[in-house]
Amino acid sequence: MIHRNRNWADLVAAVLLLCFSAVIYSGCFMEDRQKKEQARPRPNAEKIEADKKARELKINAEKQNLSAWLRANTWYPIVPSAAAAVVEGDRVIYMETVRCEPSTPFLAASLTKTFTALAILQLVERGLVSLNDPISKYLQVKFENSELNSEPITVWHLLTHTSGLIEDPSPKHAQNNYPFIIPEQKYPTGFRFNYCNQGYNLLGFIVFEASGLTLGEYITRNILGPMEMKDSRAPAGTRGAAGVECSIADLARYTIMLMHGGVYKGRRIISKRMFRKIIDETIETPRSHRKEYRGLCFRIWSIDDRIYSMHHAAHMPSAGGFMQIFPKHDCAYVFISNPPVYDREEYYGYYYGLKSRLVRFCKALMTDDFDPVTFDSDKPSKEQLKLFVGRYRQYSNPNSGQHVDIELSPGGYLIATKSYSGLRVGLIPTSLHTFVYIFPGQNEKGEIYDFVMKKGKIIGLGVKEGYFVK
Question: How many other CB atoms are there within 10 angstroms of residue 31's CB atom?
Answer without folding.
Answer: 10
